[in-house]
Amino acid sequence: MASKRQAQGEVDGGEARPVPPDGIPPLAGLCSHADATCIGYGVEENVSRLLRYHWTEKRLRELEVARIPSTPEWEVKGALSLHQWLDAEHADALPDWRGACDLLS
Q: Residue 39 and residue 87: Cα distance in Å, rounded?
């Protein structure tokens, strides 16, 4: 449950933000409008992060597959298989981005 300060629109820095009558703060109370309009990562940084994420998903999938045969509990094998399948789905979705990233790097 949110504290009284947060309910009144104060953030961790102590500055008060007005809360509209419906009780929902602007931008879900996550940041100010000034913070939301700041420029984020550049193209090179995004490409680097996507490539690293792709490698991480592939490596997790390999580690999970290697761990499944040595696990004696059936339920744990099922959980590892689920995570392996989800990582495979994520890793397979990333090469669509990788083609665009190769053009930019």
A: 30
Q: Where are the beta strands (DSSP E) in the chain?
A: none
Please name which of 90, 23, 32 lies closest in space to residue 59, comparing C-alpha atoms.
Answer: 90
Locate tokens 């997790």: which residue? 60
- pLDDT tens for 67-85 read 888 889 999 989 888 988 8
Question: 39 by DSSP, 3-state: which?
Answer: coil
Sequence-ordered strand ranges (E) for 7-102 = none
Cα separation, 55 vs 94, in Å, equals: 10
Radius of gyration of the chain (CA): 22
Q: Note whether 67 and 79 are within 8 A (CB).
A: no
Say what the pTM is: 0.50
The 10s digit of each residue's pLDDT in 44-64 is: 888 888 888 888 888 888 888
**CA separation for the pair 98, 55 (Å, rounded):** 11
